[in-house]
Amino acid sequence: MFSIEHAKQMAKTLRVALQAQGHDVSHSTALEMVARQLGHKDWNTASATLAPTASAVIGFDKAIPILRIFDEAKAREFYLDFLGFTVEFEHRFEADLPLYLGVERGNLQLHLSEHHGDCSPGSTVFVPMHGVEALRDELLAKRYGYGRPQIVEQGWGRLLEVYDPFGNRIRFCEG
């Protein structure tokens, strides 16, 4: 499929080739000729139907929240042992420098950072999900000493809220 940028480049090439043979045409005339070559009535119709180039299309992938942590052992206890995440990656510039840790569970990814400039403690992450009761039951069965979350019915869904040891809150919501 032709992009609009490809069609514009074709018109420019056509114009240069015609000028080399002694035929001066305007840029708009060259655009009209290319539009007809591509099977369109005119340039306006072509430009309305041709795809934009990939670089012109804005698209977003999923966001990955970064949460501030202060203690690696506490972070691992909470995120890995209690919430059931697994380590995706670990990074330190040197052995005695702050940790940057990627964790994941299913399609949910979080980045945990000891770097003071990455984020502020006390953040909230909202996580739409399915199976909130099963998650609650799983968490309660672990008998975590610092939290026994319960489901709260809200107007927008069923909410299970957990707080990490660093003041960050994760709101799991079904609904």
Describe the structure.
There is one protein chain. By secondary structure, this protein is of the alpha/beta class. The protein has 2 domains: 4-56; 66-174, 2,3-Dihydroxybiphenyl 1,2-Dioxygenase, domain 1 (Roll). Helices cover 32% and strands 25% of the residues. The chain has 5 helices and 8 strands; from the N terminus they run H-H-H-E-H-E-E-E-E-H-E-E-E. The strands form 2 sheets. Strands 1-4-3-2 form a 4-stranded mixed beta sheet, covered by helices on one side. Strands 5-8-7-6 form a 4-stranded mixed beta sheet, with helices on one face. Helix 1 packs across helix 2 (27-37) and helix 2 (27-37) crosses helix 3 (43-49). The longest helix has 17 residues, at 4-20. The radius of gyration is 28 Å and the shape is elongated. The two termini are 40 Å apart. The model has no long low-confidence stretch (mean pLDDT 91).
List keywords for this structure.
four-stranded mixed sheet, 25% strand, antibiotic resistance, Bleomycin-R, alpha/beta, Glyoxalase_8, 5 helices, 175 residues, 8 strands, 2,3-Dihydroxybiphenyl 1,2-Dioxygenase, domain 1, 2 domains, VOC_core
Helix-strand blueprint:
Layout: H1 4-20, H2 27-37, H3 43-49, E1 66-68, H4 72-82, E2 86-91, E3 100-105, E4 108-113, E5 124-128, H5 132-141, E6 151-154, E7 157-163, E8 169-174
Tell me the strand percentage band: 15-25%
Shape: elongated
How are the strands of the biggest sheet laid out side by side? 1-4-3-2
In CATH, what is the class of the largest domain? Alpha Beta
Largest sheet: 4 strands, mixed
Q: Can you name the CATH architecture of the largest domain?
A: Roll
What CATH calls the topology of the largest domain is 2,3-Dihydroxybiphenyl 1,2-Dioxygenase, domain 1
SSE sequence, one letter per element: HHHEHEEEEHEEE
Total count of strands: 8
CATH superfamily of the largest domain: 2,3-Dihydroxybiphenyl 1,2-Dioxygenase, domain 1
Q: How many helical stretches?
A: 5
Q: Structurally, how many domains make up the residues?
A: 2
Helical percent range?
A: 25-40%
Structural Rg: 28 Å
Mean pLDDT: 91
